[in-house]
Amino acid sequence: MLKMGSECLIVVFRFIVLGLFVALLGRSSIGRWLFLNFSSFSSLGWFSKNGPSEDEVASASFNMWFVGRGYSDSRMSANAGDKEVDAEIITRIMDPDAGYLTTPIILLQCALIVLGQRDSLPKGVLTPRIVFGSMDLQERLQQNVIF
């Protein structure tokens, strides 16, 4: 479930209107053409083909909260049945702009971990838990100004 919020009612209104634009215009080829060719107008000024200026990137930030609920004993999750969830973890990520600054940092740290352990990884399609489960990804991200 995704929840978005803002302290400003006008921004919430823009979220709603932009969502309606995407839902209605994104269904047709003409609507998609409008988005691609007039992105600034059809996104109410939030997106453009030019991208943000350096000042806009420098002044941007984000703050995300992740809430996970489950079982304190991993063996319990397989046989949970009607048992109630007894564990919760809350994680907050806050950093500069997610698209231009944070994403490359995260991808680079993940790539360095994969390159460092490529000989010990099993062959085939791997889940993030298999690749990063026992690694120090969180510590690496904290050392590189994320969190």
Automatic annotation (TrEMBL):
User: Per the UniProt entry, what are the Gene Ontology biological process annotations, in alphabetical order?
Assistant: glycolipid biosynthetic process
Q: Which InterPro entries match?
A: Saccharopine_DH-like_oxidrdct
GO CC terms: lipid droplet; mitochondrion; plasma membrane
Which top-level group of life is the source organism from?
Answer: Eukaryota
Protein's name according to its UniProt entry: Uncharacterized protein
Its source organism is: Linum trigynum
